[in-house]
C-alpha cells in the first residue's frame, strides 16, 4: 500500500511518502502543494494530513482536497 502524508512538518514516518513546504529531513520531500501534487493520479492508496488544512484559505483547502 502507498501512503502519502501531506504537511508532515517534523512528524513523519519512514513507511510513508512525506511532503511539506519546507523539508526538515531527507525523508521529507519539499513541495508547495498549492502548485499541485508532484505525483501521477491514483498513485496512493491513502492520503493523510493533520493540522494542515486549517492553515489554508477556504478556496485553497478545497483545491487541495479536490486533487487528493
Specify the structural class.
alpha/beta
The order of strands across the largest sheet is 3-2-1-4
**Oligomeric grouping of the chains:** single chain
Roughly how many Å is the radius of gyration?
11 Å
Work out the number of β strands: 4
Note the overall shape: globular
Structure, briefly:
Helices cover 15% and strands 22% of the residues. The protein is an alpha/beta fold.
Descriptive account of the structure:
There is one protein chain. By secondary structure, the protein is of the alpha/beta class. It is built from 1 helix and 4 strands; from the N terminus they run ββββα. Helices cover 15% and strands 22% of the residues.
What structural keywords apply?
single chain, 68 residues, alpha/beta, 4-stranded parallel sheet, 4 strands, 15% helix, globular
Secondary structure elements and pairings:
Elements: E1 3-6, E2 17-20, E3 28-30, E4 46-49, H1 58-67
Parallel strand pairs: 1-2, 1-4, 2-3
Amino acid at each position: 500500500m502507498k501512503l502519502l502524508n501531506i504537511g508532515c512538518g517534523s512528524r513523519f514516518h519512514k513507511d510513508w511518502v512525506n511532503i511539506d513546504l519546507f523539508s526538515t529531513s531527507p525523508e521529507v520531500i519539499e513541495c508547495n502543494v498549492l502548485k499541485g501534487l508532484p505525483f501521477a493520479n491514483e498513485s496512493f492508496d491513502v492520503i493523510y494530513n493533520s493540522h494542515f488544512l486549517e492553515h489554508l484559505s477556504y478556496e485553497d483547502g478545497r483545491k487541495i482536497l479536490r486533487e487528493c
